[in-house]
């Protein structure tokens, strides 16, 4: 929220690579973490892992015009969103996020205030989960703004949750609600008024999604789940990944797929089908879980009690490697595992 | 060196994001590493760190037109180079590289064969040091090819070598020779014939630099060094970083700065000053070390015996925070800590 000084330097080109690195360094939280042996500013960051834990590592490259549009997402929102997307991957393993490295490619004209606000957002989102930036790298770029965050984390060895162990008969569950992110993005693209309560809610779900880190930890600690993945490519797309790696299929019940009131309302306003948004929209960053049918209610209850987040059963795992959707009229249709493809153009999810 | 099939798909757009990820996955070495708990292909990679070791993490974003030019670097060379740059940072801490995450932003027209060869290069360079790719991410981009590698590593806690502990009276040493990378880049830009022996040697130093990983480990294990950094921004630029963080200055002896015969020869051919290339060219990825004067010869001898790489004393650390260069005629000049700035245009080092 701080305004840039009206005196020079104003853009990243004014400051140069090393000036920008120094500026970023002074804006990071310091001295908070006894695990850090060498902080940002040396050749590499060095830290002590927790003895006995498995280390986790993931990265996500976000490209302007494909993953975000600077005309309707603020720098602070983009910072929070870029961190959240990676935190969500750590959450999908039941992990505890620890440290992040942030690589930026920025056009020379990028305002320094924009970079400052990006880090305000990154620090804010990481700080919610006691994680911190320990390293990074900046470069110029000709046209596109690119943010690549690598997120590290830890998990107990016995609690590592992959996509590969769903079994026929398992229940399929999902945290929170689906479809809001796509409807929020469409609302932004259409220039709808963010001050409206329902519009503001779906836009918030798109611009600053909530990574389900505490929910993922709670799920892993129950040791009831057989597989877990976060919903980044859409329910159908991510279920497709899970089914493929587990060698199973799935039957979903359309009426049980959780969609919130704001999403239903704004989808209607936009003439969009909220069920399609939930199935294929993606970027909701909810967690998709499988667990033995008999443990489904216990898992949902435990997560609800520990985090306040609803967990809803939406279908079951089957042996045949197909995905089907049971509609409210009793008919069935095949569910294509298509999601969002980042080699496609924006607007064609 | 393999040619792409003449049947479709030919470009990354033909295959799409998930097809490309699957193709990359099948081209990575598998089953080689008992430390990996979850390999590439899940939400995150998971691995077991070596008990008691400090973990290292670094990243480097390489942008087409700034860090490399696809018209004169092959995909395999670029893969090796991108890995080498990060390995060099791990080397500068005296570390052992472990795992890499590779983020790519690629224009839709990028040939699949090009991506395959990029990974051949990455795998080749990492494999030399028993490191491996465990994760990554791909996206389209409008115009520029961007490669961001995050490299993880490990080091004994007592052997962590930072930039911040050089002391007045210390000797300044450097591995190998300097200036070759800039002269090699200029030779490529001028379209000189790579088949010529001397040209081939400087081009090789630019296109596929050798990270001094074994040398860095040997230096750390002597426990004689007080500070270490790799020469990415140029001798003067990186000495500047080291002096600033150690709160010291430095006196270099121009005649002692090691420059190899091929660099001298091709610099003369290009009308360039090889000393300037050594001081400010950068991207040589040699290691710059400080150690107590009395231990300088022992350190150089140990590294030479263990790795075959020459280590040369080039000056000494002084208390006053200035950098000076002693010329062969006995005069002195101030040494500007300027190096390569990636917000500058190529061709203006």
User: Which spans of chain A have pLDDT < 50 for at least 5 consecutive residues?
Assistant: 1-5, 344-349
Q: Hey, roughly how much beta strand do the residues of chain A contain?
A: 15-25%
- Full CATH superfamily name of the largest domain in chain A: PurM-like C-terminal domain
**Inertia-based shape of chain A:** globular
CATH topology of the largest domain in chain A: Phosphoribosyl-aminoimidazole Synthetase, Chain A, domain 2
Mean pLDDT of chain A: 92
- Summing up helix and strand content along with how strands pair, one would put the structural category of chain A as alpha+beta
How many helices of chain A in DSSP terms?
A: 10
Short description:
Two copies of one chain form a homodimer. Chain A has 349 residues and is an alpha+beta fold.
Index terms:
homodimer; 349 residues; alpha+beta; 60s Ribosomal Protein L30, Chain: A; Phosphoribosyl-aminoimidazole Synthetase, Chain A, domain 2; 2 domains; disordered N terminus
């Amino acid at each position: 929220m701080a305004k840039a000084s009206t005196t020079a330097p104003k853009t990243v080109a004014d400051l140069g690579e090393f000036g920008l690195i120094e500026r970023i360094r002074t804006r990071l939280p310091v001295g908070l973490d006894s695990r850090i042996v060498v902080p940002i500013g040396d050749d590499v960051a060095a830290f002590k892992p927790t003895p006995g834990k498995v280390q986790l590592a993931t990265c996500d490259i976000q490209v302007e015009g494909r993953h975000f549009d600077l005309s309707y997402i603020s720098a602070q929102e983009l910072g929070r969103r870029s961190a959240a997307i990676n935190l969500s991957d750590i959450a999908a393993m039941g992990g505890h996020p620890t440290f992040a490295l942030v690589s930026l490619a920025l056009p020379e004209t990028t305002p320094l205030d924009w970079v400052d606000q990006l880090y305000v957002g990154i620090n804010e989102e990481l700080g919610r989960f006691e994680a911190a930036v320990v390293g990074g790298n900046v470069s110029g770029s000709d046209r596109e703004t690119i943010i690549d965050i690598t997120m590290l984390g830890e998990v107990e060895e016995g609690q590592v949750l992959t996509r590969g162990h769903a079994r026929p008969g398992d229940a399929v569950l999902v945290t929170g609600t689906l479809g809001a992110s796509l409807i929020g993005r469409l609302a932004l693209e259409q220039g709808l008024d963010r001050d409206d309560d329902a519009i503001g809610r779906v836009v918030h779900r798109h611009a600053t999604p909530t990574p389900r880190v505490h929910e993922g930890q709670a799920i892993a600690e129950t040791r009831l789940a057989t597989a877990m993945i976060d919903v980044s490519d859409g329910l159908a797309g991510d279920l497709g990944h899970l089914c493929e790696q587990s060698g199973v299929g799935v039957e979903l019940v359309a009426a049980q797929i959780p969609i919130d009131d704001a999403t239903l309302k704004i989808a209607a306003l936009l003439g969009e089908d909220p069920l399609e948004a939930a199935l294929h929209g993606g970027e909701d960053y909810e967690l998709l879980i499988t667990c033995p049918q008999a443990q489904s209610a216990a898992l949902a209850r435990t997560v609800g009690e520990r985090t306040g987040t609803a967990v809803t059963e939406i279908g079951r795992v089957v042996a045949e490697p197909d995905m089907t959707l049971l509609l409210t009229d009793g008919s069935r249709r095949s569910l294509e595992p298509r999601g969002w493809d980042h080699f496609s153009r924006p607007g064609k999810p």
